[in-house]
Every structure is written in structure tokens, then in C-alpha cells.
Design goal:
Layout: E1 2-8, H1 11-19, E2 24-32, H2 41-45, E3 52-59, H3 66-76, E4 84-85, E5 88-89, E6 95-99, H4 102-117, E7 128-131, E8 136-137, H5 145-149
Parallel strand pairs: 6-7
Antiparallel strand pairs: 1-3, 1-6, 2-3, 2-8, 4-5
Helix pairs in contact: 3-4
């Protein structure tokens, strides 16, 4: 199993989206990219910790490639919005890929270039790619949020995960 770390706005929909991708065995909401140990949701929302809301995706590379996950990441949210997705705004909602290895960094940058060249986006892509630091799981009430509570969010490609 391998892990991937993506920030694409509010983590509830991102987590739910990746759970639907064949080959993904786990998807956990949390925080990454900041400078505070064990951040809380309240701290992250204060925009003072430097963290982004992210989803840690555990996947079987024999069933789904990291490149495919990155491609889906670019398609499932708007990577041209700086520090926001849908109605949510602030640096905690930035579009980000946190890489766990030089190989993931290489692949993420290749997929970024493909997305830029695709003609799909009218504005420049603002997604940041940086090495992963510590991933902090979010509080329990954030895990599988839509599964437990219903609702929807900015993710508009629900059937994309099954392709």
C-alpha cells in the first residue's frame, strides 16, 4: 500500500470522492503543511497554523496508480481558485499536493503540466506541490462526514471516481 496527500478545499467531499475510487482502501480527513503539532479544526480555521485541510489516501498501486489519483485530483476540484473552493475561503482550503517521495513529486509535476496543457482551465492553475511533513488526522466527527450526516459540497465529479 502507498499513501497520497491532497488538499482540494473542504476535506469532507474530497474524502468521500477518493473513497469511491477503485483501488483506494482508505481515505482520512486531516491537516498538513503547517507549523503547529496536533492542530485542531478551530486552530486551522483561524488561518494561523499554516495547515491545509487535506485527505490522506491509502491506495493499492497494483489497482490504481499515483498518476491516476493526481489526474482525478485535478478534475474533481477547481485548481485555479487561490485559497478557496466553492463557498469556503482561506489558506486552509488551498489546492495542494503533498508528496511522500521524489517519485511522487516527479509524477505530480508531470500531471500538473498535463493539466495546464489540457485546455480544461481558463485561468492559471494555482495548485502547490510540496514535500509532505506530518499528517494530522482531523477530529472523529470529520471522518466520513457525508456518510454520517448527508450533504454535499464543491466536488462536482462524483461519478468521475468510478471511471
Amino acid at each position: 500500500m502507498e499513501k497520497a496527500l491532497f488538499g482540494a478545499g473542504c476535506f469532507w467531499g474530497v474524502e468521500q470522492f477518493f473513497r469511491q475510487v477503485p483501488g483506494v482502501v482508505e481515505s482520512v480527513s486531516g491537516y498538513a503543511g503547517g507549523h503547529v503539532d496536533h492542530p485542531t479544526y478551530k486552530q486551522v480555521c483561524s488561518d494561523s497554523t499554516g495547515h491545509a485541510e487535506v485527505v490522506e489516501v491509502t491506495f493499492d498501486p497494483a489497482k490504481v496508480t499515483y498518476a491516476r489519483l493526481v489526474d482525478l485530483f485535478f478534475q474533481m476540484h477547481d485548481p485555479t481558485q487561490l485559497n478557496r473552493q466553492g463557498p469556503d475561503f482561506g489558506t486552509q482550503y488551498r489546492s495542494a499536493i503533498f508528496t511522500n517521495s521524489p517519485e511522487q513529486e516527479r509524477i505530480a509535476k508531470e500531471e500538473l503540466e498535463k493539466a495546464k496543457a489540457s485546455g480544461r482551465y481558463k485561468r492559471p492553475i494555482v495548485t502547490v506541490i510540496e514535500p509532505a511533513k506530518t499528517f494530522w488526522p482531523a477530529e472523529d466527527y470529520h471522518q466520513r462526514y457525508f456518510e454520517k450526516n448527508g450533504g454535499s459540497c464543491h466536488i462536482s465529479y462524483a461519478d468521475l471516481a468510478q471511471q
